[in-house]
Amino acid sequence: MDRKKYLSLKPHYESCLEMHGDTHLGVDWPKQETAETSYRVMLELMRPSVQGRVSLLDFGCGASHLYEYMTRHGLHNRIEYCGLDVSEKFIELSRRKFPSNTYYCLNILDNADCLPNFDYIVINGVFTEKLDLSFDEMLTFFKDMVSQVATKARIGIAFNVMSKQVDWEREDLFHLPFDVLAHFLTKKISKNFIIRHDYGLYQYTTYVYK
Question: Of 30, 103, 146, 178, which is the most exposed, with the fewest CB atoms less than 10 Å away?
């Protein structure tokens, strides 16, 4: 797949930011409550058995709303947060808000060597919308990204996609069948994964551990 094509996702989110500002709508989450639920589920990737401070990369961090959720719930004290986004506009915003955090503005498929390893990596909302990409194009993008991100995580990664278990599907969203996902993870990433479909949204989240 032409990598320039999936970069068309970037201006979509930047237009949301320009239209709605630093809000849930500015990162194209329809409701604040659903965004909060996704943040909680993403962070539950981290196993309580791991002692001490852990490092976390928020992949596709947008305006760092996950970090804001962490600070409201006192989680930032034991988690070393870093953010990554391909959008310069979102990274500039996040750096202005949280200058003490480390942020990376890069495309991991082109510049993976520039990114260090982390204990955990969460990918929240990056794979839920496909916009005008076909399903196969989005699936290729998804597989390439997850394969690369997994090499940068020491313990585990989490990501969400839209569920197929819905009354109807939107053409601009990425509804990924369980069996397609499981086959890919088992063959290419890890057999040690958990699929969560238990939190009331039209998406599901997968935890993949080393």
Answer: 30
